[in-house]
Amino acid sequence: MANIDQTSDIESPAVSPAIDVFYDGGCPICRLEVGYYSRIDRAGAVRWIDIEALDDGDLPAGKTRNALLGRFHVRDLADGRWHVGVDAFARIWRVLPVWRHFAFVFAVPGLRQVAEIGYRGFLRWQRWHRARRAR
C-alpha cells in the first residue's frame, strides 16, 4: 500500500498582518467593502479595526477618533507609516490578491485625482449618514 502524504491537512503557520486598516463600523458601505476584502484576504495580510469598537485608550498614539473617522487610515506594520485617503486604498490593494495588479491606478496622474474627487464625495455622504444616525 502506498504511503499517502497528508501534509495538506496540516495548517500552515499564521502569517502576520502587513497593515492595520481603521474603518468606520457604523458605515454600511464601509462594512460591505471590509466584508468583501476580508473574504479575499486568505493570507491574513490585513487586520481590520472598527474605530467605533475601540475604547479611547486603544486608539493609536497621535490619532483621535474624529481624525480616524474623518478620512480613511491604514498603518503599515513594517515601518509604522500612515496612509490616508486614496493612498490608504492603494495600500490595501497592494496586499490583496487580484487587486495588487490594479493598485498602480492610484499613481497614474489624472486617475488619482478622479479617485480623490470620488472619495471626497463619499466622505460628504458618510458625514451626513453619521450625523443622521446620531439623531
Across the major sheet, the strand order is 2-1-3-4
N-to-C span: 71 Å
Helix content: 25-40%
Query: Outline, from the CA principal axes?
Result: globular
The number of domains is 1
Instruction: Give the class from helix and strand content and strand pairing.
Output: alpha+beta
Count of helices? 4
Portion in strands:
5-15%
Summed over residues and divided by their number, the pLDDT gives a mean of 87
What order do the helices and strands follow? EHEHEEHH
Give Rg in angstroms. Answer: 18 Å
Largest sheet: 4 strands, mixed
Which stretches are poorly predicted, pLDDT < 50 over at least 5 residues? 1-13
The overall strand count is 4
Question: Can you walk me through this structure?
Answer:
The protein has 135 residues and is α+β, with helices and mostly antiparallel strands. It has one domain. The protein has 4 helices and 4 strands. Strands 2-1-3-4 form a 4-stranded mixed sheet. Strand 1, helix 1 and strand 2 form a beta-alpha-beta unit. The longest helix is centred in the C-terminal third of the chain and has 24 residues. The N terminus is likely disordered.
In short:
The protein has 135 residues and is of the alpha+beta class.
Set down the secondary structure blueprint.
Layout: E1 19-23, H1 28-40, E2 46-50, H2 65-70, E3 73-76, E4 82-84, H3 86-95, H4 111-134
Parallel strand pairs: 1-2
Antiparallel strand pairs: 1-3, 3-4
Please supply descriptive tags for the structure shown above.
four-stranded mixed sheet, alpha+beta
